Amino acid sequence: MPEHATSQVSRTETGVWTPRIVGFLCYWCSYTGADAAGTARMKYPANVDIIRVMCSGRVDPELITTAFSRGADGVLVCGCHIGDCHYINGNHKTMARMPLIRKVIEGMGIEPDRFRHEWVSAAEGEKFKEVVTDMTAKVTALGPLNWPQLMYDRGVGHGHDLKPWGE
Amino acid sequence: MSGNGDAAPKLKVAMYWAASCGGCDISLLEIGVNLLELIKIADVVFWPCAADFKYQHVADYPDEYIDVCFYNGAVRTSEQEEIARLLRRKSKTLISYGECAIDGGIPALANLTNPKGIYDAAYHHNPSIDNPDGVEPQPITECEYGELEIPKFYDQVLRLKDVVEVDYEIPGCPPQAERVWEAIQAVAGGAVPARNNAVKVACFDKSVCDECPLEKRLTKIKEFKRPHEARPEPDWCLLEQGFVCLGRATRSGCGALCIKGGLPCRGCYGPSSNVEDQGTAMISAIASILDAETEERAKQLIDEIVDPVGTFYRFSLGSSHLKAHK
User: Fold this and answer.
1) Do B165 and B41 share a structural domain?
2) A61 interaction partners in chain B (CB closer than 8 Å)
């Protein structure tokens, strides 16, 4: 049993499974937007583990596949609206990367709802709340992804018992 | 091919062919006249593709009898796994030779489906198949002479290093002869330790762009084209012209062979030294030079890329983050 295979323990004290979503938020807009949601005391699920990045253009697709491959149930990427980027055109790269990585993720059999890309400005606390609430509900409905366990069961990777097909 | 009895003991070299096309075996012959040099310093003690050795010969060798063993191809059947373990035991240095053994290569694309899908395509639903009785190969078949056994077909394709410990890796599909000869000389001269931890040799650390003769004009991709659809303009970066060229995410060492021949790089040397996952690195690179000002335009352009998973992970799915289809 790989050590990360136990990462799917319940995240609440009630013992009910809730998803673990990794959120990459850009510093200048979306993180401030999430902060705005917090300052305004809006209620939304605590399922998104926020990772602050300087720009959504910094979110290499590698980070998204890494999150999934290490057990995330969903990945959320938020950045400034097009035209609002602090670095002028950093989010133009996000804009082109996200549809492409989505194709790869879906090509590997991960449900489309597990990956979401949204533009959230610093003033859009309300939007951030809605995005997180909606995404959490959708991923909860899909259930755990647990990619490390899936790959372990499929026998792909180091040190797994090889089993002939049909046995 | 036995020892010549001279004072200096000859190296004992082996090569094995697993789930691969056979190109690796041929690429070793590509070293040309250096083969004569190789024969001077080494004895071949196992090479099923070129000489008549049986597995029993290898099993009869003492442990660590073979000095250098090249293993090409991925591990797909019980036979390949068994021989991988046997050769590991009998070899001082085990080298993954070629992309299939290192990153899964083309065979690892089978991990995007499952054996059921593969059998279906190979034996049932295929325009070129005539199989009215629905016959499939079985591990054990009864016939008048008794039981016949063939190796078992595994659920998945694995890299050599998923099965046994590997000392060195020579990337490429196939590895280029010049690099291979350099590697052989290094091993023969004792310049490298016998045991190591899957260190890549016979290649460079930079990307294929470093060796590419074409000019980068810093233009953006306006449309995607496939090699059979258009003739590339000479002397201009193929990716900028819209041909999906994996050079930016691929390790160098080949000398940009395909590109010099007018074809975009297919990524056969695997991810370059600072890249973990070749496909996502390529996505990053392509997206950075996409000529799109709006989201709609970006999506429209990206839809022009045919089979993104198969293209970006053509040779490295086994070493990618996600590894296989769910």
Assistant:
1) yes
2) 280, 283-284
Each residue of B194-212: pLDDT tens digit? Answer: 888 888 888 899 999 999 9
What's the token pair of residue B237? 């970066």
Would you call B323 and A62 a contact, using CB atoms and an 8 Å cutoff?
A: no
Cis peptide before B174 (omega within 30 of 0): yes
Range of the domain at B161: 11-106+157-200
- What's B57's domain CATH number? 3.40.50.700
Asked if residue B150 and residue B161 are part of one domain, the reply reads no
Domain count, chain B: 3
Residue B5, domain member (yes or no): no
Let me know whether B19 and B33 are in one domain: yes
The model's pTM: 0.89
The answer to whether position B179 is within a domain reads: yes
Q: Select from A104, A109, A156 the Cβ nearest to the Cβ of B279.
A: A104
DSSP one-letter string for B29-62: HTTTTHHHHHHHHEEEEE-TTTS---HHHHHHSP
ipTM: 0.88
In this predicted model, what pLDDT tens digit does every residue of B130-154 receive, in sequence order? 889 988 888 888 989 899 999 988 8
Residues 279-318 of B with CB under 8 A from A: 279-281, 283-284, 286-288, 290, 292-295, 298-299, 301-302, 305, 308-309, 312, 318
Distance to chain A for B155, nearest Cα, Å: 5
Are B130 and B173 in a shared domain?
Answer: no
CA distance B93 to B82: 17
A61/B283 touch (CB, cutoff 8 Å), yes or no:
yes
- Contact between B260 and B176 under an 8 Å Cβ cutoff? The reply is no
The answer to whether residue B313 sits within a structural domain is: yes
CA B219 from centroid of its chain's CA atoms = 32
d(CA B216, CA B206): 17
